[in-house]
C-alpha cells in the first residue's frame, strides 16, 4: 500500500516537472538567446560583469527584480541562499527601476543580500530581456539564456533549473 502511494507521488512529481519545464521553455522563447545582448554590466560595487564569460563554464542564475516588487521580497532571500557557501551558485541580479545606486545599495545592505546587483535605473536591460513581470529568473549557460520563469520560484526550482541547464549542456 505504501509503495503504491509512493509510486503515485513520484509519478505526479515527474508530471509536474515536465509541465514546469514546458512552461519555462515557452516563456523562454521571447528571450534574446545570447547573453551578449546585455553587454558588460557594472554592479553597485563597481565590478564589471561579463555574463558571457561568467557563464562559459557553469550555469549562472540571472535574477531580474525590483526593490518595490512585493513578490521579490519573498524570492530574493531564496536567491541569496544560492550564494551561500553550501550551494555557491553564481548569481547576477538586475534591479529594475529601483532608484539611485545609493538608495538601492542601502536597500540591499538592509536586507543583507550577498548577490551581485546591477542597477538598471532606466529599464534598458529589462527592455533588452523583454521583462514584463518581476521577479523573472533565467539561467545563463555557455553564453545563452535559458529557462525563464516569472513570479514565485522556490529554491529547489532554482537549483533544478541550474542543474537542467548543465545537464542539457
Structure description:
This protein is α/β, with parallel strands linked by helices and 169 residues long. It has six helices and seven strands, in the order αββαβαβαβαββα. The strands form two sheets. It has a five-stranded mixed sheet with strand order 5-4-3-6-7. A two-stranded antiparallel ribbon has the order 1-2. The radius of gyration is 17 Å and the shape is globular.
- How confident is the prediction overall: mean pLDDT? 86
- Taken in chain order, the helices and strands follow as HEEHEHEHEHEEH
Q: Main sheet?
A: 5 strands, mixed
- Structural class label: alpha/beta
Distance, first to last CA: 39 Å
- SS field, number of helical segments: 6
Major sheet strand order: 5-4-3-6-7
DSSP summary, beta strand count: 7
From the alpha-carbon coordinates, what is the Rg to the nearest angstrom?
17 Å
Estimated share of beta-strand residues = 15-25%
Helix content: 40-55%
Shape: globular
Enumerate the spans where pLDDT stays under 50 for 5 or more consecutive residues: none
List the topology elements.
Layout lengths: L1 H27 L12 E2 L5 E2 L1 H4 L5 E6 L6 H12 L7 E6 L4 H11 L4 E5 L3 H6 L6 E6 L2 E7 L4 H14 L1
Parallel strand pairs: 3-4, 4-5
Antiparallel strand pairs: 1-2, 3-6, 6-7
Main traits of this protein?
5-stranded mixed beta sheet; 169 residues; two-stranded antiparallel ribbon; alpha/beta; globular
